[in-house]
Amino acid sequence: DAKTTQPTSMDCAEGRAANLPCNHSTISGNEYVYWYRQIHSQGPQYIIHGLKNNETNEMASLIITEDRKSSTLILPHATLRDTAVYYCIVRVRSNTGKLIFGQGTTLQVKP
Amino acid sequence: DAGVTQSPTHLIKTRGQQVTLRCSPISGHKSVSWYQQVLGQGPQFIFQYYEKEERGRGNFPDRFSARQFPNYSSELNVNALLLGDSALYLCASSSGFGGAGYETQYFGPGTRLLVL
């Protein structure tokens, strides 16, 4: 399974855009990039996923580089409620749907 | 629409006891996966069931078992509890088994198990 590398922690000012990077240099052509977040003691919340094109939904935007070796999750206007651990996961096509979580990035949104 | 539900929300057991955790998937979802999250770490995959058959198993001892019912709900059983089994147990559901890589898994709120 492709390994991802994320910064351990990041700060962001409330109202500003939060840009969370993720490196996945060993990603294969048929592997999707998924982002989840986990607010303290709750279940992980799905945010967005993509294969090669940039994606946007009501929560965030996902920018994937042309070589697919890295991606950035963008929260356009961060609020205090966006404080959470953000996980970048590369999802391989296989006989199972298992997700392999790393340590993630702890995003602290400050007033 | 109801999301993934899990019961109970919290549980306290003593070493050596057995525990059963329950999960109801999102309506229409046929796959259920179980994860264990120890404090300070990311969730770790335990099992996946799809159409009542086991599709995947993580690196967990045989004390852990699961099953899926005809209505696609699922139970996770842990026997002979150890202190190290204290964790948040998460259930996730998806429409397919995930082989294509794009079926999104949606997580429930989890069951927090404390083993004393």
List keywords for this structure.
heterodimer; A: 111 residues; mainly beta; four-stranded antiparallel beta sheet; 0% helix; 45% strand; B: 116 residues
Notes on the structure:
The complex is a heterodimer of chains A (111) and B (116). Chain A contains no helices and nine strands. Chain A has 111 residues and is an all-beta fold. In chain A, strands 1-9-8-3-4 form a five-stranded mixed beta sheet, with no helix packed on it. The mean pLDDT of chain A is 92. In chain B, 0% of the residues lie in helices and 49% in strands. Chain B has no helices and eleven strands. In chain B, strands 2, 4, 5, 6, 9, 10 and 11 form a seven-stranded mixed beta sheet that branches. Chain B is globular and about 40 Å long. Chains A and B meet through β3 and β4 of A and β4, β5, β9 and β10 of B.
Summarize the structure.
The complex is a heterodimer of chains A (111) and B (116). Chain A is mainly beta and 111 residues long.
If you compute it from the alpha carbons, what radius of gyration of chain A comes out, rounded to the nearest whole angstrom?
13 Å
* Distance, first to last CA of chain B: 37 Å
Number of DSSP E strands of chain A: 9
- Give me the oligomer status: heterodimer
Order of helices and strands of chain A: EEEEEEEEE
Largest interface in this structure? A-B, 28 and 34 residues
